[in-house]
Every structure is written in structure tokens, then in C-alpha cells.
Design brief:
Shape: globular
CATH class: Mainly Beta
CATH architecture: Beta Barrel
Radius of gyration: 21 Å
Number of helices: 6
CATH topology: OB fold (Dihydrolipoamide Acetyltransferase, E2P)
Number of domains: 1
Distance between the termini: 75 Å
Strand content: 25-35%
Strand order of the largest sheet: 1-2-3-8-7
Helix content: 40-55%
Amino acid sequence: MKKQSLILSSFVIIILFFIPYSYSNEKNVIKGKAVVLDGDTIKIKGEKIRFSGIDAPESYFRGKKQTCIEENKKVFCGQISKEKLIEKIGNNSLNCKIEKNKDKYKRSVGECFIKEESLSIFMVRNGYAFDWPFYSKGKFADDQEYAKKNKLGIWNMKFEYPWIWKKKIREIK
């Protein structure tokens, strides 16, 4: 009888340990159709989600649109990045794994997927966003190197990294 009680107690402890874990995983996932706000930011069910570890050129930041130079012409590379993300997502539903902390703009931060494909990897590997080492710790560095080496997307243009461009815009105002 004592052995059965010990087994039952152990079983209950194991169950109690895993129940909160499984619920917390569900809280850390946002699923649904997305509205694209920028090349690295979407909205699902009213929740803004910033892709962690990457930065895309700005389609609109403090009243300005980020430009790049392509064949000696100014182009709105932030808009190009945003349109590439819209095209990639299409009508697909996304699964976003959300980090615990929000960013300074109170947006959720996470990595979003179409089925098993990371949108962050897609955007960086195709040259429409950049590995942001300050936040990524180099997670997307190989994908960026691939895009750079093959002159994909914005790597085919003259550009400023978005975090440098935004810093200059902040200093103007």
C-alpha cells in the first residue's frame, strides 16, 4: 500500500509540474491571419508583433520613408521590404512564438512561421531584412551572408542599416 501511495504521489507531482508548462506554451503562441505593418512587424487579432533579431528598412518612421539607391535612383526600400513580406504571407495563417518581454513600443516580440518556415529567415535570406546582431546574437548571420554574397534584395542597392537610419532620424527631431 505504501508503494502504491508513493507511485501515485509521484504521478500527481509530475502531472502538476507539466500542466502549467503546457499552458504557458499556449500563451506564448499567437495564431491567425496577419496584417503586415512593415517588413519586420505584423498584426494578428489586434496584437502587434515585431520579429525578434531582425530589422527591415522602414516603410514609415516618424513621418519618413527609408530610401536606398538602386541604379542611381532613389527607391523606397522600406516599402519594397513590406511588399515582399505581404507577398510571402499571402493568405496563409501564421504561428508566432512570442517572447516573454515586449519591446519599448509595447509590441510583442517573436518569430513567426508559415507552417514550419520562419518568416525572419525568409526575409533575411532573401535580402529584405537584416540580422540585427545587438538582438539576434548572430542567429540570422548565415542567412544574411547568403543574401549579401548573392546580392539579393536590398544587398543589390546602396543602403543604410535600418537601426543606423532610425538613429539619424531620431537625432534630427
